[in-house]
UniProtKB/TrEMBL annotation:
Transmembrane segments: 33-56, 68-89, 134-156, 168-184
Alphabetized SUPFAM superfamilies for the sequence: ATPase domain of HSP90 chaperone/DNA topoisomerase II/histidine kinase, Homodimeric domain of signal transducing histidine kinase, PYP-like sensor domain (PAS domain)
Full protein name: histidine kinase
Chief place of localization: membrane
Entry's localization field: Cell membrane
Keyword Kinase assigned: yes
Domain Histidine kinase: 349-565
GO cellular component, one term: plasma membrane
Length: 565
């Protein structure tokens, strides 16, 4: 079933549907223009004839006695009266041609009655009129009729055509033909320009309509997005703001909501109580021509319900490097910040609840180790359990530190240790998990690599890297571990054949609680803290940790540690 198009969706003019089509002027416009043209053309001729009659009466009234002169004047005045009083919008253009024809007859009578007045030049008026409004045939008719009347008048005289009258019989028709030709050509040019102007007008209307449509589309987009947009010019005046921004800064809609209010209102820093000084407030910085990303501010007075905004700004120039304003984008991140806070509370609570039973477990293991009746094999297993419980307690402490929102209070104890031995113990601890999935652990053991470091913390780093290489590997995969060392530093290299990571995932690997999207919904467990804590341990040793990865090819982790602090 087809979809009907609403009437309101149609273009407002044919030009919008087809810019090459030029609509003719309406009938009312044509008839109105005809009436004005008839009036102006005839009233001009009537005024000239009136002036001629007045001059004759003032300067030489007695010499004018020919009835033909007065008949011609009467004809002109009567025609002028018709031009004024008749409804030409009803009579039409074809009937209006009678007026210039009667004018030609009247002018012929005037000239015949008083040839000395030079009234033949008045033929120019009907010539211009007919050439303008009736095209080629009007120009020809308006030239040939006066010429015929001039010749007929000369032949009607008693003397006939004389040598003295010949110049006028030639000159006047030539002048009339020239005027008719120029008028016709001018009319064509004006008509062409009028058509071109109408086309350009319709094209401009089309562009304007499209601009209005784009403006409405942009307004709809701006007012649909769930972040605030505020644009301003070089003078700091608001040029555009969307409804989300207005709701943010003025929920009640009772006052201004532009850059003026954003600058005037106090915003607070991360603790929700300390106000930003003017020089650090994002809105002042944006007005000063600065661009920035993700500055967090809090709206609302301390002790009341507050809103957290991540504010970014970009500057706009005119294409020639001249600053003309900027745009500010505000995202409401209150829910995200509250969710992070709640997550930290949960992590802290769970970690605290784990610490209590684990401490009890350690106590009982210590008691068991003090019992002389425990066999060597059992004692070895208990020692492994005690060592792993110590590591779990350290990890819980790290979790509590991360959940507190501050850097964990990590203290390093430097002593002699063997990096190769730490790697061997870590491999043994991860071997059961690797064997369950058919993953082979290969260590290129080149002997002892002594160094002065916190062995407990380095073991935490190694365990994290090796366990990640196993967890995120494919079944039947391979994990290769090697150590390269010189006199100054040692380099631990862990390579796996796992799923790998994208460039975006790699850029966030060391963020606390970050887990890649590809494993977030998988059964692979993790907190997203391991690499963050490992990086901090390595940095506190004065070293560095680097991760290289390709999707579906695997990951390489390289840890560089000084052999002495």
């Amino acid at each position: 079933m087809g979809v009907k198009r609403r009437q309101t969706d149609r273009p407002r003019s044919r030009a919008i549907a087809d810019e090459s089509v030029v609509e003719p002027p309406s009938r009312n416009a044509v008839t109105s223009a005809l009436g004005r043209s008839v009036f102006l053309s005839q009233i001009t001729l009537g005024a000239v004839v009136l002036i001629l009659v007045l001059c004759v009466q003032i300067f030489d009234a007695q010499s004018v006695s020919s009835p033909s002169f007065f008949i011609g004047v009467a004809v002109i005045f009567v025609v002028t009266g018709f031009a004024v009083i008749l409804p030409w919008h009803v009579i039409g253009k074809n009937a209006a041609i009678a007026l210039p024809l009667l004018d030609i007859a009247g002018i012929a009578f005037i000239r015949h009655g008083e040839p000395s007045l030079g009234a033949g030049v008045l033929f120019v008026f009907p010539v211009i009129w007919m050439s303008t409004h009736y095209g080629v045939w009007g120009a020809v008719l308006s030239t040939t009729i006066p010429t015929a009347l001039l010749v007929a008048g000369a032949l009607a005289d008693d003397g006939g055509v004389s040598l003295s009258s010949t110049p006028q019989l030639v000159t006047i028709p030539l002048i009339l033909a020239f005027v008719a030709t120029m008028t016709y050509q001018t009319r064509k040019r004006v008509a062409a320009h009028r058509v071109l102007l109408r086309q350009q007008t319709l094209q401009l209307e089309t562009v304007l309509e499209r601009s209005r449509l784009q403006q409405r589309l942009l307004d709809s987009i701006f007012n649909t997005v769930n972040f605030g947009i505020l644009a301003f010019d070089a003078n700091g005046n608001t040029t555009t703001s969307n409804s989300f921004h207005r709701r943010l800064v003025d929920p009640n809609g009772a006052g201004p909501s532009g850059i003026e209010k954003a600058v005037r209102d106090v915003v607070y820093q991360a603790d929700r109580e300390t106000p930003y000084v003017d020089s650090e407030r994002p809105y002042f910085r944006a007005l000063g021509g600065e661009s920035f990303d993700g500055i967090i501010v809090w709206l609302g007075e301390p002790g009341t319900e507050q809103t957290a905004l991540a504010v970014s700004a970009r500057q706009i120039d005119d294409g020639h490097g001249n600053w003309v304003g900027g745009v500010i984008v505000e995202s409401d991140i209150t829910a995200e910040i509250n969710a992070l806070k709640e997550r930290d509370v949960v992590v802290a609570a769970v970690s605290h609840e784990l610490r209590t039973p684990l401490t009890s477990i350690q106590g009982y293991i210590d008691l068991a180790l003090e019992d002389d009746a425990v066999g060597d094999g059992t004692r070895k297993m208990l020692e492994v359990a005690l060592a792993n419980s110590d590591r779990v307690l350290a990890i819980i402490a790290d979790l509590l530190g991360a959940a507190s929102g501050a850097d964990p209070a990590m203290t390093l104890t430097f002593a002699d240790c063997d990096l190769s031995e730490l790697v061997r113990r870590s491999i043994e601890a991860q071997r059961p998990a690797a064997e369950r999935r058919g993953i082979r652990l290969a260590f290129d053991d080149r002997g002892a690599v002594p160094l002065i470091a916190d062995g407990f913390r380095l073991r935490q780093v190694i365990d994290n890297l090796v366990s990640n290489a196993v967890k995120y590997n494919v079944d039947g995969g391979l994990v290769q571990i090697a150590i390269e060392a010189d006199a100054a530093e040692a380099e631990l290299i862990v390579v796996d054949t796992g799923r790998g990571m994208t460039a975006d995932e790699q850029s966030r690997l060391f963020e606390r609680f970050y887990r890649a999207a590809s494993v977030r919904d998988s059964p692979i467990d993790g907190t997203g803290l391991g690499l963050s804590i490992s990086r901090e341990i390595v940095l506190k040793h004065g070293g560095d940790i680097r991760i290289y990865s390709e999707v579906d090819e695997g990951t390489t982790a390289i840890v560089t540690i000084p052999r002495a602090p």
